[in-house]
Design brief:
Chains A, B: Keywords: Signal. The structure is a homodimer of 362-residue chains. Chain A is an alpha/beta fold and 362 residues long. Helices cover 31% and strands 22% of the residues of chain A. In chain A, strand 10, helix 7 (217-228) and strand 11 form a beta-alpha-beta unit. Chains A and B meet through strand 1, strand 3, strand 7, helix 4 and helix 5 of A and strand 1, strand 3, strand 7, helix 4 and helix 5 of B.
């Protein structure tokens, strides 16, 4: 456990490192935005599988025989700035989201896509299989419109509906909230962790070494993807949810909360060791209680943060380099479940830039 | 009907106009691509509606009472180059497609997104309501994976499966076909022409005057959108399918084909007149028979092309400015249902650039 003095030192170190920010970052902070200079941009599908009906296709009847369906791929839109840094960033959205997560923020500012393009990183935004533009699924689903946005407002720790948390880093005008709600998009097939991690591993196989940036649900799937891809050179994970994996025999006890019970799972040690070979940083925002709470929207994150700390300890015990940053502990207040699009997202981006620099990954 | 001599004159005129292309366009043709210089890029949702459950939301139980669902909006990703021309292009995909339609082509070349950014147009790509990243729908749907790609290969006039049309403007390697199939994405709710045209009209209300570029199914919805938005200053329509609207009392007879019967519909003359106030150009590709064919994949387009010609005649009879360009008639061979991503898409883009210039819209 960190002492208060330790936290102060950590905060001072971050401040110190921030002094070294590039002119570009300073321009971002002062709001003078130069044009983006993009050497290359485009999109493609990768991964996935093919269903094939038996028989021979008849072009005159167009019956099902002999027809195929390509599905379960991911879709990515990428932009590579001129003079890009060595490792691109692959940004993977969370539950109920698409690549939109990383684009314009709900209140209309630049998101991580633009912020990191301006910092000379190549940026790949993905829609995971069966989500968004990667909608073709090999498995059926029924979509039933279910009003649930007040639940997400709470689970994403914007506040306790209809109240915003005091000092929350989220714009409180109605239009921002509307944009936030409208960026959700449903699954066009069942969520399948193997399908998703296979597709992201296939993306890294195609593009070569890079850095994986995950959020929430993709956090756990991201650990699985590291097991499948040697091209992931680091992971930056915002508020990973379920899916923490430990060496078999070392799985922590279940963690009950008012939002349900969080379970970790075990993998062979040889697999787990892959997570110890790359630097990993995990960020959690504010309004996460340290004692059990009756509010599931918050208690949910109490156990996840606790599990993340145990997980980082396990990785480091085996010689790895995993850090959990609980933002309020370094003096950064008010962040929701979406730190990268919160009002202080440039400060959040600075933390990530600095960390990448510290790890020699820029 | 055009004579052969008339066609020759038309082809010569196009050649003449092409001489005036910008240096940028020449660079595109010779493959020397400079970086894109983007003054602004981002994304947002627009249009749509809200479902609201009665009652009061309980944050501790998170039951359905008092919760909302924002749905039926469109999603757009926009890029504005430095020194952009006055009118941006709003590109609207066709059936089973998303904004991906306008991005990288199946064989990995630049699509209309990049091509027109390089020609200094602002470009808005949309996912229509209940498609892609605009997936939240207020209506339910069941998605059943149905192998159907050989049907689309034929309907999109790539060939007659498994044969490609001779000289088709489509790369014949397996990877290109795979990318082409994987760019399809399903509807996450029923297609609703009013919902869609309302959302696109809302987009134009937000961004101001611009040019609407449609494809296939969005062709007909595009005419409806013109009725709803005075900000649409021109329409460029690639292979519009169903949905041609005529003045009431002047609706052409149904057109039977081996793919089914094409019907037009009537609107009040005052509405129809809105279509006569802006320049409109429609392009159709190759391998469309002029006599009835037993192959539904082709015959489908015979009646659509015929209906488009009747429609342009009606618009022009009322003082409008509508042109139907059947590409083979001006000497451009081999185009599929997706001319803007075909192998000759720079030539197709030149036609559009020239047309916009002729109409004073550049």
């Amino acid at each position: 456990m960190k002492t208060r003095f330790g936290k102060l030192i950590a905060a001072l170190m971050l401040t110190f490192v921030s002094v070294g920010l590039s002119a570009c970052s300073v321009a971002q902070h002062t709001g003078k935005l130069e044009p983006l200079v993009i050497q290359q941009q485009g999109s493609f599908a990768v991964g996935g599988t093919v269903l094939t009906n038996p028989g021979r296709f008849d072009p005159f009847k167009m019956t099902p025989e002999g027809q195929t369906l390509h599905g379960d791929h991911l879709y990515t839109f990428y932009q590579i700035p001129t003079n890009a840094r060595k490792f691109p960033l692959v940004m993977w959205h969370g539950y109920g989201q698409s690549a939109k997560t990383w684009e314009t923020t709900p209140d209309g500012r630049e998101g991580f896509q633009n912020i990191f393009l301006r910092r000379d990183y190549g940026v790949y935004l993905i829609d995971q299989p069966r989500r968004g533009r990667a909608g073709r699924s090999t498995q059926p689903v029924t979509l039933t419109p279910t009003p649930d946005e007040q639940k997400w407002f709470d689970i994403f720790r914007v506040g306790i509906w209809p109240e915003y948390f005091p000092g929350v880093q989220f714009a409180q005008d109605p239009e921002s909230l509307e944009q936030y709600f409208r960026q959700m998009t449903p699954d066009t097939g069942p969520i399948d962790i193997d399908v998703n991690s296979d597709a992201v591993a296939a993306l890294f196989a195609k593009i070569g070494p890079g850095i994986l940036v995950t959020h929430s649900h993709s956090g756990g799937m991201g650990w699985q993807t590291v097991l499948k891809s040697p091209n992931i050179r680091a992971v930056v994970s915002y508020e990973p949810g379920s899916g923490f994996i430990f060496p078999e025999g070392e799985v922590p006890e279940d963690m009950p909360s008012s939002a349900g019970t969080l379970k970790a799972s075990g993998v062979p040690l040889a697999d787990f060791m892959k997570l110890t070979k790359i630097p990993i940083v995990i960020y959690y925002g504010d309004n996460i209680p340290d004692q059990p709470s009756e509010n599931p929207g918050q208690d949910n994150w109490r156990v996840r943060l606790a599990m993340a700390k145990l997980w980082a300890d396990a990785v480091n015990r085996y010689g790895g380099d995993a850090t959990v940053v609980h933002l309020p502990e370094i003096g950064i207040q008010g962040n929701t479940h979406f730190p990268f699009s919160d009002l202080n997202n440039l400060e959040i981006a600075d933390l990530m830039s600095d960390w990448l620099a510290q790890k020699g990954l820029d």
